[in-house]
Amino acid sequence: MIRGIECLLSLDETRHFGAAAKRLGISQPALSQAIATLERELDVRLVLRGRAFEGFTPAGEAVLAQGRHVLRALKDMRAAVDLCRGTVERRFVVGIIPVTTFVAPLLSALILEHRAAESLAVEVGDVHFVARGVRERRLDAGLVYLMPELLRDMVQYPLYEERYCLVSLAGAADGGRGPVSWREAAQVPLALLPSTMLNRQLIDATFEAQRLVPRVRLESDSVLSLLTHVEQGLCATILPRSSVTMLGAAGRLAVRSLVAPVLRHPVGLVMLREQSASPWRRELDALFGSAAFVRSFQTAGDPAAPEGSPA
Fold first, then answer.
1. Beta strand extents in 7-153 (DSSP E only)
2. What is the CATH number of the domain that holds 51?
3. Burial bucket for residue 153 (CB in 10 Å: 0-12, 13-18, 19+)
4. Last residue of a domain, one of 53, 85, 117
């Protein structure tokens, strides 16, 4: 039953059978079989199936709501048993959004340096995936864009402010020097994150506000994939500066600030707000809220090189 609940929750997150299976690291037939087994155990239909995923039945929605509580309670039970055994390992699991891929190692280094955890795990997804994981206690924290309306029930630790840039191959026709306007960026073939990502939604909204239609040549949910295509001279991309400056191998790229308008967005850590925090939670809270911890991230959002020079 537990596996079926996990598959159902993954399907709720992705709204796609194949993507749900990939997120769990199993095959699509295995996911479908687990959900079908759960339906037989409960003697009720949970998923509306057609040629593709069509949604959940009312019973499916009820199982989703209760399933989150079941998995949360199961995790708490296992933690309590480990505590009795004296085998508790402080493992820190963080969810990150793609544009923080190259900032995450800095977070990992600081956690290990301060011995706040013995081991780490990193999961990548959009801000909704991270927020849901934190709420369900699958994730200890999230490194995300800070969105008050979505993260109202979480403790938020602001770390730095993203600044958006046009990233192109140094020396290419579109790889000039100095700031570049969004109108100019709209004329360049672009590789961008998918429209389901908040980063892309912010970019699309900025173009739309100026009645511009960008030339999107390629989409990928991997920032590294976007930068690899840029390095081949196939296109440019629009990313937060930290996605390039924190990547040491980006020497062939020209990074130019986007202006008119300047687009910024705060990035930080989020953790579930709990009434009775454990000693470890209090230790993490003290670390994440310290001035020294925040200072370590300040260079992430700041320019690291003159405009138009290689990153």
1. 47-49, 53-56, 91-96, 119-124, 141-145
2. 1.10.10.10
3. exposed
4. 85
What is the tens place of the pLDDT at every residue in 5-55? 889 988 888 888 888 888 777 888 888 899 999 999 999 999 998 778 888
User: How remote is the C-alpha of 34 from its chain's centroid?
Assistant: 27
Round to whole Å and give the CA distance between 245 and 92.
26
pTM across the whole model: 0.70
Q: E-assigned strands of 198-293?
A: 215-219, 236-240, 253-259, 264-272
- We report the CATH number of the domain holding residue 239 as 3.40.190.290
For residue 117, give both structure tokens: 């955890």
**CA–CA separation, 7 vs 58, rounded Å?**
17
Residues 99 and 44 in one domain: no
3-state helix, strand, coil in the chain (%, to 5): 45, 25, 35
Which of 69, 85, 101 terminates a domain? The answer is 85
253 and 190 inside one domain: yes
Cis peptide before 261 (omega within 30 of 0): yes
B/e letters for 112-148, b = 16+ CB within 10 Å, e = fewer, are: eeeebbeebebebbbbbbbbbbbebbbbbbbbbbbbe
**pLDDT value of position 108:** 92
Question: What residue has token string 């593709």?
Answer: 52
Sole residue written with tokens 């511009």: 212
| pLDDT value, residue 258 | 94
Nearest to 91 by CA among 79, 77, 73, 103: 79
Residue 102 lies in a domain: yes
Predicted confidence (pLDDT) per residue in 145-176, tens digit: 998 777 777 888 999 988 899 999 887 655 55
- 173-217 confidence digits (pLDDT tens): 555 568 999 999 999 999 999 988 888 999 999 999 999 999 999
Are both 211 and 120 inside the same structural domain?
no
What is the domain range of residue 53? 2-85
